[in-house]
Amino acid sequence: MSRPFRRGARPARPSRSARPIRSAAATPPTGLSGRLPGALWRRAAGRGPTAEGPSTAGFLRRRTFVLPALALVVLVLSTVVFHDVHGRTERLRDRLTPALVQLAQARTALELAQTEAERRLREEDGLVELGETYRLQLTQAAQSLNQVAQSGALNRAQEQELRVVSGLVVGYGEKIAWAERHRTSPLLRNAGLDYAAGMLRDPPRGTRPGMAGTAGAPEAGGATTDGDPSTILGRIGRLEAQLRDEVDDLAAWSPLTLAFAAATLCAAVVFAVTALGTLVFLCHRLRLLSLQLAVAAVPVLLLPLLLAVGGTQEHSAQRRVRTTVAGLQEVRTDRDAPRRIENTGAAAARQIDAAHPEGWSLTMGIGVACATAGALTCGVTLFLYARPYPTPARSRRKYPRT
To answer: What gap in Å lies between CA 193 and CA 122, rounded to an integer?
Structure first.
């Protein structure tokens, strides 16, 4: 016989066996998911604050658009980062390095031509003509300057400066030719040589322009103003310094590249967590192990990894090339200078080829195609999974009648 219920008495607590059992969906995730941020994982796996969680149809339809969108974001960001690094490699290989090599060739050729002219016209008292060696060096300098103009490494101001240098080289050759025609007159011969030397390089310290050689020589226009060289070698040296500064900038990590790389990493992590959560949702809610979705997500995750390896390898080659081309300014002017400059340019080209930029460019094209196919496959797969489930009806808000 049960006890009568008295007013004001507290109801009896249910027995331990009568307590409701918590749903497995409400239990906190463990294992791999437990190590991930809780809120992000619960949202990725479709586990809301309640035990029921989101509806299957709504979850699948949302992921049909969210997962491909995240994949495309990863694809675009990683491609932008690699394009920036690869574009620097191409500019360094195809434009800057050849331009620096040709500028060094022009500089040494002009110095060798001046040495040859001084030896034949001044030291030998004009008893012999200039000969083919001088003319060959002057022609080599003109051809090197022409190749620099065609390299595409110069901006508009630098191209204008190079045209000025080419004009000065023509004027320099005319002054040497004038000195050769008057080689029988020591005064006129030395005046022409001094004028040409003043056009070529700055006069030694302690001498005035036009007074570096024989007295009475006309003033050479080779004086250097503050920060603005007017001699041929001074202008060539300034162009070389500007191109070396650009090489230094190309071989360094730019803030834009680092920012996009960090964004790519974040987007890849979000995509990986979202894809894993979607697989877990399909396994728990639909009892379905979706191999198609897992396989489609693999190329999207591999693309940033492959492009990161390629970009790092190309960046290392850029740093080595920067060190190599910096040695061009230390090449001494002698008969072997053109060969050493050519060997330096060949060494820089080998260093870039060792990074296989063409192979990585092909890898990027294939990887982008596979990742795009994977992103579309993710969307199609989730769309097919959501088709059997009806779209949940939206509840209409009822307004009170007035």
So the answer is: 8
